[in-house]
Inverse folding.
């Protein structure tokens, strides 16, 4: 494979410096160009977008630091190297803060110039390799999501449906012991399907595409419909599920499909881990530039030792004896990612034996009108 010919632009108000740098670099096989001031240099940067740019800090008109500020805006892949005859620690630090790759004080030898360019080429190669690996990783993730969705989840759904047919007696009578074993297998299978669904949700959230779907909406009507749907879960424990509305006048940036997953998870947990004849209250309130939804329950609560970790992936509190089942450990992780994609935060206050309050804070959006 033929090696790439790198291009270098030299911006310096000294003609002798421009000519000598271009001559040295051309002999090394680089494509070179020069500019006698910052204004011309910026125009050439915009037009040719070279691989490297050598920038003199002290120039009349547009100075080197101003040029340096514009390099990243024009093309962040251009590697800027600062050259100057009045090198100080302060100017070097300032240039590095503004994105300079390296600093070359005048006077410098041809070998010093060649060395710094060679280091820059190595950095550019590493950047290209990192970008290639990033693209490859993204492709692997996308292919893996497809594989999990179709080649793993679909057969498991089919098995779950066969279990339903067998347990329903549609293929003959099932003995009590056999039925018990099949029901246990079905519970484990449903848990695995829930885990796969949660993992797929996290994978999609990591793709960062949610923010493109956000639209201003009133939260209270959406929450009211969700609470009406979830009322069916409250009967076994005789839980009271209520909505305490706020002013209802403000909007939040919303993708309801994903936010519904957040609030469904929080409310379902509040019901599941509640005490007999307990209550769950979903309230909406406003605070400065935020809309806050609190999900408060009278349940078993969370001990202080667990609170810092409950939003971590796969972190689980062993409450299965009290609730009757065990989740995937991903529900709250997904909730945090979804809320974060909305520009909001999620917080919990709880005490073991005294219930919990999960607070989702979302930024206010401009009115639809």
């Amino acid at each position: 494979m033929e090696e790439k010919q790198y291009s270098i632009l030299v911006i310096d108000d000294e003609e002798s410096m421009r000519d000598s740098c271009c001559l040295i670099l051309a002999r090394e096989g680089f494509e070179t160009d020069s500019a006698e001031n910052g204004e011309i240099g910026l125009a050439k940067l915009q037009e040719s977008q070279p691989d490297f740019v050598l920038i003199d800090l002290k120039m009349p008109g547009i100075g080197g630091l101003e040029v340096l500020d514009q390099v990243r805006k024009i093309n962040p892949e251009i590697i800027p190297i600062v050259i100057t005859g009045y090198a100080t620690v302060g100017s070097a630090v300032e240039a590095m803060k503004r994105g300079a790759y390296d600093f070359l004080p005048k006077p410098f030898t041809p070998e010093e110039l060649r060395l710094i360019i060679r280091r820059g080429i190595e950095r550019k190669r590493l950047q290209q390799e990192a970008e290639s690996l990033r693209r490859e990783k993204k492709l692997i993730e996308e292919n893996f999501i497809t594989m999990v969705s179709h080649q793993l989840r679909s057969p498991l759904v089919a098995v779950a449906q066969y279990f339903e047919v067998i347990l329903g007696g549609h293929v003959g009578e099932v003995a009590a012991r056999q039925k018990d074993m099949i029901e246990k297998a079905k519970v484990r299978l449903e848990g695995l399907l829930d885990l796969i669904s949660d993992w797929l949700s996290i994978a999609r959230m990591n793709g960062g595409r949610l923010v493109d779907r956000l639209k201003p909406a009133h939260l209270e009507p959406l929450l009211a419909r969700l609470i009406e749907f979830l009322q069916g879960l409250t009967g076994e424990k005789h839980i009271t599920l209520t909505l305490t509305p706020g002013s209802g006048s403000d909007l939040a940036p919303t993708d309801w499909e994903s936010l519904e997953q957040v609030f469904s998870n929080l409310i379902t947990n509040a019901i599941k881990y509640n005490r007999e004849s307990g209550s769950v209250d979903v309230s909406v309130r406003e605070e400065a530039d935020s809309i806050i939804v609190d999900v408060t329950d009278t349940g078993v609560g969370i001990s202080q030792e667990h609170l810092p970790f409950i939003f971590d992936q796969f972190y689980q509190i062993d409450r299965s004896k009290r609730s009757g089942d065990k989740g995937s450990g991903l529900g709250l992780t997904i909730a945090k990612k979804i809320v974060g994609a909305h520009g909001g935060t999620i917080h919990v206050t709880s005490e073991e034996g005294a219930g919990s309050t999960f607070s989702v804070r979302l930024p206010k959006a401009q009115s639809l009108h």
Summary: The first strand starts at residue 7 and ends at 11.
